[in-house]
């Protein structure tokens, strides 16, 4: 009913208000220089990363994509709400773009914020095929700034995506440089006792995992806007100005912990959606996520934007400065993170041998259930506040991030001891949907076998799986249970992911939801987009290995489908 | 933000240089930011609308010594503050406001009045009752009557955590 009304209104106003833009992108072989190495890659309009596309909310865009490669390509508009035929996933939205051909995307821009685009074909995205999207809102934004920069992160690897995948399939720890050494064994034995150390190592061996599996593809150079740490991308400012930094993590595999020593950051947007502003010292950006922050450097000095990978195997670095060529100290990376038994909390059903009697594993699971999601689920914000903070004036003990397993080895901590952003801090600035009870729950266990480098959902890889069928108009509650030891950034195309942070109607709306090892995370989706969509882990090699599903939205009223197409076509003609 | 009644009295002397004198931190005027006024002496009424997270208007012009009646209408979905002070006063107040959020006094779109009255120990409560400031829930209005002095480094600001940093402040300029 509401839908029809809206559609009616839309078609009434569209002809009068249409703003139409035409954009051209070429998909090209390019050279990428990280400062550490030079490699062949793929880019747009001759460069990687490709251009910043600037759209306006309400605009009908027409984007001509010319494939200059000798293979198929595609572009997915990450986070954009659009008709499924425009979503750019070969085999789900459309057949793909053949070598030498031009495909024209046409859709209405119905949102605002920071997004990005990338190839959804093979490993073109890790090879460099991505760019950024900025959508200017119709009205004024709930924050102000004097200038803005896109900060697009990536983890550039000297090997091609194809080669990395082959190596991982052959030897899953091929790129794991952080493996524990014999020396580490003896020092652990000295601290923890020989038997405990032996048991610990054997338990990890049983799980086909290593403590150092925080990152399974190491050996990359972190880059910001196409520049390696030595090349030092620099954004200029006048002291006292407010700067909006639009962080986008376009990495194939790498989570980054981002800070700007000397500056507080105020997070105002997550995944393109406004959030109630949060002041932080540091934040972790998952693969495919975006965060917009506002900083206000008051002094005429340089500041380093430092983004070290979650596993501390590499970093990206850039500079904010009043003048080109100025630079600030570059911090050294903190010690590599090691997963703990708590991160295995979700790995039930495995034969742990001696570990079955150990308290850690079960303890971690139980505690997770209470301290983590189920508590938040039912608890009000007030209840959370009471449980996590001492009385007024008492020393604040830093509460654990409820989105990590208790005792997790990758629990984030701010380098300066200050505030590290948690998902629990994200509250929608203005709820996008009315709150209502979900119509049903779908459990998705994130599963994998590290020994064979297979990644899957509910133990079934994409090639063997039936699509997830959703009914138009329902509100589905997805329950992600991470039974692996890695963090998975789950990305549902075409419809919003309302992340349950326990804030009810203020729960934030995202396009990519990170699920940490040993945790359960809930998100809800208003099924309001007919057609078929991709739903997958955004770690490139996990998606390719099978942690991927097709989602089919059935039962859409014919009218809404037709009118959606009409709007698109009108846009094309305008 | 404070303090029970008795504490307000007790601390008024101690606080007044900090609260009412903008010049304590270096910029040297040593003058006060002004004082609460009486509505009947107001030369005019200025209506400021509070949105998420900005004011309309974002700039107001006054004369030194002028008494202005501010009518403040919260048209947003979140709790907002209207606070007259210097930038350094706002910064100090933000820490107090952070505490109010952590203790659930400010919950997104709601003010927990019960919590504000609650005894926090040591004679503290979380009332928000400084004369230069008012907290307003969505859909509600508030009022401040203020007599400006000749201190000119003044902003009106919302010190709900993150709001000032996001840009929810406006300049007071002097004729």
Percent of residues in β-strands of chain B:
25-35%
Largest sheet of chain A: 6 strands, mixed
The overall pLDDT average of chain A reads 85
Total count of helical runs of at least 4 residues of chain B: 4
Question: How many β-strand stretches of chain A?
Answer: 30
> In the CATH hierarchy, what is the architecture of chain B at level 2?
Sandwich
Distance between the termini of chain B: 31 Å
> Structurally, how many domains make up the residues of chain B?
1
End-to-end distance of chain A? 28 Å
**Largest two-chain interface:** A-B, 29 and 24 residues
Defining key terms:
heterodimer, A: 574 residues, alpha+beta, Immunoglobulin-like, 3 domains, six-stranded mixed beta sheet, 8 helices, globular, disordered N terminus, disordered C terminus, B: 175 residues, five-stranded mixed beta sheet, 4 helices, 12 strands, Cupredoxin (chain A)
Notes on the structure:
The complex is a heterodimer of chains A (574) and B (175). Chain A has three domains: 127 residues, Sandwich (Immunoglobulin-like); 161 residues, Cupredoxins -  blue copper proteins (Immunoglobulin-like); 222 residues, Immunoglobulin-like, CATH 2.60.40.420. Chain A has eight helices and 30 strands. In chain A, β20 and β21 form a beta hairpin. The N terminus of chain B is likely disordered. With 175 residues, chain B is of the alpha+beta class. The chains are: A alpha+beta (574), B alpha+beta (175). At the A-B interface, β14, β15 and α6 of A face α4 of B.
Task: Summarize the structure in short.
Chain A has 574 residues and is an alpha+beta fold. Chain A has helices spanning 2-17, 161-170, 182-192, 194-206, 359-378, 381-388, 540-545, 558-573, and strands at residues 19-33, 38-44, 52-56, 59-67, 76-78, 102-108, 113-118, 130-136, 147-156, 221-224, 233-236, 243-249, 256-259, 265-270, 273-280, 282-285, 290-295, 303-309, 315-321, 440-449, 454-457, 468-471, 475-482, 488-492, 497-499, 509-510, 512-515, 520-526, 531-537, 548-554. Chain B has a five-stranded mixed sheet with strand order 1-10-5-2-3, with no helix packed on it.
